[in-house]
Amino acid sequence: MNKRQILYPLCVIAAMLFAACNEKESSIGVELQDPSTMYSGVVDTAYGRAYTMFEDSLLTSGQSNALVGSYVDPLVGSTEAVLFSQISTYNGSGVEFDQNCVIDSVVMSLFVSKLYSQDNNSKSYKNLHFEVYQTVESPQKDTSYYAFDEIAVSGKCFFDDVVRIEENDSMVVRMKLNSVFVQYLLNKSYATEQDFVNAVKGVRIRLVNDGTPIMALLNLKSSATNITTYYKYVNGSDTIARTFDLTVGQDLPHFSQFKNNYTGMLSVFNNNTGDSIDGSRYLYLNPMGGTNIKIYFDSFVENFHRQHPHAVIHYAELLMPVADIAPASKPELIAAFKCYLNDVVVSIPDMYDTYTMSGYDGKYDAERGCYRLRITQHLQKTLNSGMDLGTLLVISGRRSSPEYTVINGSNVGATSGNPIRIEFVYSE
């Protein structure tokens, strides 16, 4: 599926108008939904068919957080994330370090929001091996970059060393850039910001796996994420210590690249990792690993529409039981997108519902051991149309952490009677 065509929630009004033109969809019955009659009607269950979808065409440019490093998932395989970013000045200013300036050091700082490590050692610090290489060109403004995109490096290394960092709530990695970078500043004058960008280009920031995979979540919007030049200005007999700040990440063009190596237990179910794997027993959700879930209720929808053409759905939940092989930690939220023709997907209408019905809205219910997502309007409109082109399930906030989960598949027998399904109440 080509996610370059995904319309995100901020575009919901336009998306819903578009959707109306792509499917014989009707809102009949939606206006009859009443919270007071939520459980007054016939209780039914819909079963479907589901797949784990592999895809890497997710937009990663311009995000406020970025992952760097590597992570090994025994279920699917390994993932490496790197960051590409432009380097520039603040406020569009130029750069000038004349013969009276003596540069002491240039330090790149990255604010680390969280570390994900598979090292069970109880040490309170981590040794992080960072590489910073110049790219042959700068990431471009107003250009969309996706998880599979990359920019070649020039071969000029600005940093390659190990930084020790203590795990706490305010972790900042500080890397002293070497003389290769300093040469772009020493005795140089750039009249404009663009002149400086044209000379320096951009950087590829990589957290190297030296034997123990580790992933760092970087806060690119933090004021602590920057580059500071420490220098002295010599004016006759006076020497004045000064600093000059450059910026990296933040509002500059930047994006993350993810490289996935599908070698885990679940990956063997399918030889074509660019497509999907069977979802009879397990369904796999990993934003960083590039896997989502697609579920169809097409056979059920066709039969129900034929038998109950005027049904009103009072309440509907998509139940997503967590599988026995899933990790103990649970992602916060699973979101749903409705699939249309031409691989277009938009958020289901229940995400913008103004009704006062009580719903779990994609969160995990520990008592029932499953994620519960209210889909009342989504199901009503799907049943009205008489066809189902699929529902795409994703972990909300995808590509922001290596957290994942495994959901029971769509086969009733394979999942011991607890498959992914819809439970709903209707009347006629």
Structure, described:
The strands form 5 sheets. The protein has a 6-stranded antiparallel beta sheet. The protein has helices at 12-20, 179-182, 193-200, 298-307, 376-385; strands at 42-47, 49-54, 65-73, 77-89, 95-96, 101-117, 125-135, 153-166, 171-177, 189-190, 202-208, 214-219, 226-235, 238-248, 254-262, 276-278, 282-285, 291-296, 312-321, 334-339, 345-347, 363-365, 370-374, 391-395, 405-408, 421-427. The chain starts with 11 loop residues before the first helix and ends with a strand. The protein is built from 5 helices and 26 strands. Strand 13 and strand 14 (238-248) form a beta hairpin. It is mainly beta.
Secondary structure layout:
Blueprint lengths: L11 H9 L21 E6 L1 E6 L10 E9 L3 E13 L5 E2 L4 E17 L7 E11 L17 E14 L4 E7 L1 H4 L6 E2 L2 H8 L1 E7 L5 E6 L6 E10 L2 E11 L5 E9 L13 E3 L3 E4 L5 E6 L1 H10 L4 E10 L12 E6 L5 E3 L15 E3 L4 E5 L1 H10 L5 E5 L9 E4 L12 E7 L1
Antiparallel strand pairs: 1-26, 2-16, 2-18, 3-4, 3-12, 4-11, 4-14, 4-15, 5-10, 6-9, 6-12, 6-13, 7-8, 7-11, 13-14, 17-25, 18-24, 19-23, 19-26, 20-21, 20-24, 22-23
